[in-house]
Amino acid sequence: MNAGATSSNAPGGQGMKNRSEFVYDLRSMGLLGQPGEWERVNTTLSAPADLKIEVIGVAEGSPLTLELMFESVSEGIYVSGTVSATARGEDARTLEPIELPIDVDIQEMYVYEQAEGDEDSYVIDRDQLDLEPAIRDAVVMALPFNPSRDESEEFSYTLGEDLEVDEDESESPFASLKNLLEEKKES
């Protein structure tokens, strides 16, 4: 495609069997070896398996919205943008079901050839760019270890009746100790 074209469908090259919808054919996109060319990819795919941690995750098959830019550079393809999904799990405090929106920034360089000793880069394999590992890494790292319904809400609970707190005493953590000392002196 021409620079600036927008793709809203699944990746091209459907001739391969059992190919992941996260794999993009750079040759058919017109990006392979064409520094300066770029293409937007705005699509919704089904989430792959294992986008989760112990208490929360994105369910396999649920919608995963990609708003990405593929930019051809001399070393490979630079992919940037956002991935959005809904994570489901349990509130860490109450163990009640919880849903949290997940919006993750992606900024990854896919290289034509991996430098010696570089095991962290994503590699373009046979003119194909596979987004799944980068998306998996970004989404799983963005999941909260202690998910809660409302992070700004202060958690509190009581057993029985609420305690009355004198405002003078609440100002200092040592106020109750001071009261104990005063009571001891009086007796």
Overview of the molecule:
The chain is α+β, with helices and mostly antiparallel strands and 187 residues long. 17% of the residues lie in helices and 35% in strands. The chain is built from 4 helices and 10 strands. Strands 1, 3, 4, 5, 6, 7, 8 and 9 form an 8-stranded mixed sheet that branches. A two-stranded antiparallel sheet has the order 2-10. Strand 6 and strand 7 form a beta hairpin. The chain is elongated, with a radius of gyration of 26 Å. The N terminus is likely disordered.
Total helices: the number is: 4
Gross geometry? elongated
Percentage of residues in DSSP E strands: 35-45%
Average pLDDT: 81
Per DSSP E runs of 2 or more residues, the count of β-strands stands at 10
Following the backbone from N to C, one meets helices and strands in this order, namely EEHEEEEEEEEHHH
What share of the residues lie within helices? 10-25%
Unreliable segments (pLDDT under 50, ≥5 consecutive)? 1-18
Give the CA-CA distance, first to last residue.
90 Å
Biggest sheet layout:
8 strands, mixed
CA gyration radius, whole angstroms: 26 Å
Helix-strand makeup class: alpha+beta
Entry keywords:
disordered N terminus, single chain, alpha+beta, 187 residues, eight-stranded mixed beta sheet, 17% helix
